[in-house]
Write a structure and sequence with these properties.
16 strands; mainly beta; single chain; 3-stranded antiparallel β-sheet; 4-stranded antiparallel β-sheet; elongated
Length: 227
């Protein structure tokens, strides 16, 4: 019921709480004009101060078409844009514009989109990343005459596949290219020592020793280019 009693005390007098029930769960809100009221409560709230006040209303820019959403640049400028995830690289702006290909220019042009950055850096990386020097190898030149052909690709794979020393977290071998994935170049050799120098598409270098070099040493520079 609505009586409050104390157990364990037979002398305690029960208290009737029915007069304190307010039935709050059954109360209703009502709005008359701009006045908000609660049933069984004499206190009302005047909402007229919040009506037709531009500071409390959301005003959207005019325009836009079906399917577009409102976008902001973060500085109070809003615009309607297509609601889609398939934007191309030319439509995606860089957070900070940056110059990718005009170092040293007095007035370099900064790239502002992902597409512009890719187009600017691609010619650089496509060259630099494809060219490398293979590891050094010994070229026998202690006697004159045709030298033993040297498989430049095999020498490269052997050294990259079994490094003498590596850092603790490094893999055991260095990634390598197949023989057919490379172009082979001899960029320099001592013409007073060697002649008939050539290299095949498989990376086999042939040569002839015309004169034994001082100290039996001479340089031959080799460059690999990824196709």
């Amino acid at each position: 019921g609505n009586d409050l009693s104390l157990s364990g005390d037979p002398t305690a007098t029960p208290i009737d709480l029915s007069g304190y029930l307010d039935n709050t769960d059954n109360q209703d809100l009502s709005l008359t004009g701009n006045i908000l009221s609660l049933t069984n409560d004499g206190t009302t709230v005047d909402l007229s101060a919040y009506v037709n006040d531009d500071t409390n209303e959301i005003e959207l820019p005019t325009g836009g078409t079906n399917g577009q959403i409102l976008s902001t640049d973060g500085s109070g400028v809003y615009s309607w844009v297509d609601d889609e995830d398939d934007q191309n690289a030319g439509e995606v702006n860089l957070v900070t514009p940056v110059d990718m290909d005009e170092a040293g220019e007095a007035s370099p042009t900064n790239e502002t989109t992902v597409e512009a950055a890719i187009q600017a850096i691609a010619p650089i990386t496509s060259k630099a990343a494809r060219i490398f020097y293979p590891p050094s190898i010994a070229v026998p030149a202690s006697s004159t005459g045709p030298g033993t052909p040297i498989d430049l690709h095999a020498q490269y794979v052997a050294q990259y596949g079994s490094p003498a020393v590596k850092s603790p977290s490094a893999p055991n071998s260095i990634p390598t290219y197949a023989a057919g994935e490379l172009h082979y170049y001899i960029t320099f050799y001592d013409t007073s020592v060697f002649s008939g120098v050539s290299v095949s598409d498989a990376g086999i270098m042939t040569f002839t020793v015309d004169a034994v070099p001082t100290g039996y040493n001479s340089l031959i520079n080799v460059v690999f280019v990824v196709k």
